[in-house]
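Minutes, project huddle
Topic: does the predicted pose make sense with iron/sulfur cluster bound?
PN asked that the exact inputs be recorded in the minutes so nobody has to dig through chat later. Recorded below.
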Amino acid sequence: MTCKWLKICPLRRLEKQGKITDKWRKSYCETDENWKNCKRYKYDEKGKYHPDNMMPDGSIKKI
Ligand code: SF4
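Predicted holo structure (tokens), as shared on screen:
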């Protein structure tokens, strides 16, 4: 099962804009399990703020 936010995650917009590659989607969002390790996902579960340009590993991408 992929991440429940796969289709509406802000990272999809950044992909469409060419600001990030599909590597995050392939290594986190579309995987069966690894989305559980995504910091965006974890922050969301805790209701903790995270900017749109925070990547699944917690790094902030300059956009
Ligand atoms: S970046 Fe994280 S929260 Fe967003 S779709 Fe991918 S795994 Fe889910």
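Observations noted during the meeting:
- Residues 3, 5-6, 9, 11, 28-29, 35, 38, 40-41, 56 surround iron/sulfur cluster (CB under 6 Å).
- Residues 39-46 form the longest helix (8 residues).
No decisions taken; revisit at the next huddle.
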